[in-house]
Amino acid sequence: MVLKGTMLACIILLCLQGVLFADCPAGSFMSADGCQQCGLDQYSAAGATSCTPCPEGQLSVKGATSIKECYGEDDETSHRVIVYKEELGTTIEIVTKKGFVTDKEDPTDFKPITIHKGFVCPKGQTKCGDIDECVPNSGLCNGAAACSNGFDESPELCASYQCPAEYEKCADGLQCFQSAGKCDKYKVSHCNDKSDDMGCDCKLNEMMCADGNGCALVLKKCDGQAQCADGSDESDDICYDLGVCSKGTKLCTSGNQCISIATMCDGTVNCDDGSDEDSDFCTEYECPPYQRKCDGNKCLPQWNLCDSEPDCEDESDEDPAFCAAYECPAAKKKCADGIQCVPKKLFCNGKEECTDGSDESEEECAEKKGGGKNVIEKGKGTRI
Question: How far apart are CA 293 and CA 271, in angstroms?
């Protein structure tokens, strides 16, 4: 038999590549690298140069030899089994002929078998029932559905679900809440049925909310910020025509809201009706001893007086004549100019706070423990 040049060259090339010139067996195909096994959901007869896909929706093992080894999901000769694959660390879906028993450790021991990795959630997450969604285990049965089908909050799952450590079930037997939040009163209920705040005793300085689910501080009732989930501490029944507010607070003109005296006429509206910043009212209003009136209708905290930064529009809080006679608060100290007040803790810190620089002077800082002076360099102080 005489071989033509082209055929001979091909044989030589295949031999050099370590490939025997022979038909590949069924279940494989000839490639440049030799015979290769058909992959999943494919089959081939002997001598094939490529593998044929199984019909749509059918599965096969690697190395299937004919279409007869392609099995449909509803085929009477096959069925699906979910098993645990140890080396993958997760579950996988396998297809086997009916009558075959699958090994949970290694399902590949059985033939014909095809392994298809199905939809699997990462470790620490749970699949949302029959849909391809995952939710963190920490979010299961917490009263707020994360799965689009609500599976993570369903009675099917939550009735038998065991809450994590430091959590407990609400009265409905489904939702879990953090035990530390039980009877925490001034916050929104953690249970949708509000059972985490039921049966809780109020203290002497508290009032029970109208629905019985929690307490509110008496001092903060009618302050415009509801403490009770039902808002009863701000209701008209409680707040209308209070007449007298708690110590340290003052009644707004509306008669149904009390605010802190420290916030009256401070330039910021705190009463819902704006009466605490009414110009006529504030002009006549006498500021508390720890505040000073400026601009004729504004109360300024003493801490802000004579600090070299004007807070009043008329700058009366930084008036030299006033500040020269003004006595700084206990935590502050006058600079050498006798006008500016600076916190004592900022003296000799390596950064000039006094406009005249006297807080970092040699005379001032020599009194510091260890003697010496501060060298000011790029805003940093260094003891020498």
Answer: 20
- Confidence (pLDDT) at 367: 66
Q: What is the pTM (predicted TM-score) of this model? A: 0.35
- How deeply is 218 buried, as exposed, middle or buried, from its count of CB atoms within 10 A (0-12, 13-18, 19+)? middle
CB neighbour list of residue 76: distance below 8 Å, 6 or more residues apart: 98
Produce one character per residue of 49-72: b if its CB has 16 or more CB atoms within 10 Å, e if not. eebbebeeebbbbbbbbeeebbbe
The residues, any chain, with a CB within 8 Å of residue 151's CB and separated by 6 or more, are 128, 129, 131, 157
For 93-118, the pLDDT digits (tens) are 455 544 343 443 344 443 333 444 45
User: Is 222 within 8 Å of 258 (Cβ atoms)?
Assistant: yes
| CB neighbourhood size of 144 (10 A) | 10
Q: Which residues contact 350 (CB under 8 A, 6 or more apart)?
A: 360, 374, 375, 376, 379, 380, 381, 382
